[in-house]
Predict the 3D structure of the following.
Amino acid sequence: MPLSEFALIERYFRTCGAQRADVRLGVGDDAALLQLPVGSELVAATDTLVAGVHFPLGSPPASIGHRALAVNLSDLAAMGARPAWALLALTLPESQEAWLEEFAAGLGRLARAQEVALVGGDTTRGPLCVSVTLLGYVPAGQALRRAGGRAGDVLFVSGTPGDAAAGLALEQGRLQAPAATIAYLRERFLLPKPRMALGERLRSHASACIDVSDGLLADAGKLAAASGTGVELSYEAVPLSAPLLAAVGDARAREFALTGGDDYELCFAVHAESVPTLLTQLPPERWGYARIGVLRAAAGAVAVRDGTVMEFSHSGYQHFV
Ligand code: ADP
Ligand code: MG
């Protein structure tokens, strides 16, 4: 017999996330009551994952639970915020207990690791769709934004972009790769690790920040546009993982990195005069980020190789002539 909505919430979601003392009232009443730390601002983000659009049909349920929270965590990381409370709006075809068990396990593992309490939500019947609202906080006035960069700022990215896009292509059977690289690349899509600690630290260093979800070139372009600048990325400087290089070779790896999505890394700008302090206080080899370009006065986002502007499209890239 399928679980009632009430029993389902009790079994899978009441104790799914972290326990937090600032949750005055969590799952079970009409709304949650949350205690915001004195002197802080509430930071709120929401993101919806639709089956077949934001993840392949038949994705592992634990990955869907993980990603539904991870995409929101990444938005808070980009604001320099600390996550605290989540709400889950779940639309399910039917209450399949094995699916729910794994989904809640994937969501719960990441929530507990990041000390996020699940404080409410909504459960409805329909085509599979998962929407998470994440709340957190920053010291008042200190949030990072996309705006704030200026021409001459140095641009950095965390991690190794492109891995997740290759992982998704593998999931969808659009890419073949050597066996040794597959597990790593798939995991980079299925279980992204948002850069929470780096985001909070960047409050003291970055002039602007965005999380990379739609492709590095596109998202760097959004940061630049919000800052009233353009951006020039160095094609050669984009950091690539060894498995991605082994899987697709240098040229395609750079294309995945610049145009692929689902990285959930941080792209951030730092005023040129603040770069030495950044490099000293957050050593790149320890914090996992690399210099990839500069903000410039001319609008637009370009990747430059040997002084030549590259143009990318879904079917590949070509030189401007
Ligand atoms: P209401 O009808 O007042 O909106 P519901 O019956 O929908 O309340 O939900 C009861 C309680 O369970 C509420 O506290 C709600 O936030 C919580 N809840 C419902 N669905 C979920 C879910 N998928 N995950 C976490 N909490 C949920
Ligand atoms: Mg209600």
Remarks:
- The radius of gyration is 20 Å.
- The chain has two domains: 5-139, 154-309.
- Residues 315-319 have pLDDT under 50 and may be disordered.
